Amino acid sequence: MTKQLFPRLLGPVTLVLLALTAWLGLWVTPRDAVQGNLVRLVYVHPAVAWVALYVSFGTATIASVLYLWKRTRSIVMDRVAHCAMEVSVVFIVLTLITGSIWGRPTWGVWWAWDARLTSTAILGVLALGYLALRRANDDQALRARRSAVFAILAAINVPIIHFSVDWWKTLHQGATVFTANRTLLIHGLMAWTLLVSFLGFTLLFFWLLRARYRLEVSRERALSVSLDEALTLRRREGAF
Amino acid sequence: MSSAESTPDLSPVSPPKSSSRGRWRSIGVLAVLALAILALLSQGLLHSLNYFETVDQVLAKRASLGTEVIRLEGVVKPGTITRTSSGASFVVTGSGDHQVYVVAHGSPPQLFQANIPVVVVGHFTTATSLTFDGTQILVKHTASYIAAHPARVKAPNGSVR
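Predict the joint structure of the above. Result:
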């Protein structure tokens, strides 16, 4: 009962949280002292980036580690890693797009070759590389092993992205939430709305991941059924 | 009908060979992506790992800089902004009394104002001058978000009381 309840509630709860984010972000929260109404993008871009870098890429990496570890190795882990990486690509692209939309009026440019932006773009290319690598091999076990190793190596870029604003001088601002001294640099209702947006987009990821996983299982099942049908047909042909 | 014809051959056969064209295409895509990563590394990380130099750093090596194009970072000094027909002139400050006079061309970004950190792309007008000729102003806003107070009264000159 509980097992079925969570997946059923995932979609509606995600929609409610995202609608709440839109309502709070557009109508309830105040303007920022410096950025004015541009601050409303803070309820989208950081949450999307959070999902892209940590939640989805993290899920793909953890699933890859679990696949490589013999005790937990299963096709389920490979599927989860693959599906999470596909969703990650979507969120990385959204991160770059929403960042550009925010960057143009605030910085004055759509794009800057600073360490944060460049390393995020590299993560996007690495995620695409992972998906290309999966198509380069038909052997399931070999494909799963190679792509798992690739995902883990690509994940090295995630802490580089995170700390890039501390390690180097970047146009991109430093952390607002995950600051070094644990000081939240956003206050009151703005902070609560930010929290709701983080929850909403995180649940959206798991909703998309679940949908993509089910699609993958159906695709594999359809392939398997068509193989069985072909064998049956061949047997019938042989009988006459 | 002979027995050979009536009994089908159902012995296992090797799986069909995968399309080598598809595999080569994927390897080609991987190669293109590897080149893309190298290009990004070259453009973004190796050439501008540190995106700008602060006023303090620039003044410390002023003699060796000459009129080289750099990205200069500093905070816009209040009371120094003058809008011109071609852009704006202002003073950017570093720590202590370090400061550089900037004459920038082109319209400044929406958030450009006093007390805000900016990155100005440009060069010093002469090898020894402390006047910086800016071709682009980028606003480097902070990571802090503080609610504005719309209830406060706005004075005729635009300042908030």
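Helices of chain B lie at 3-6, 20-46, 55-60, 62-65.
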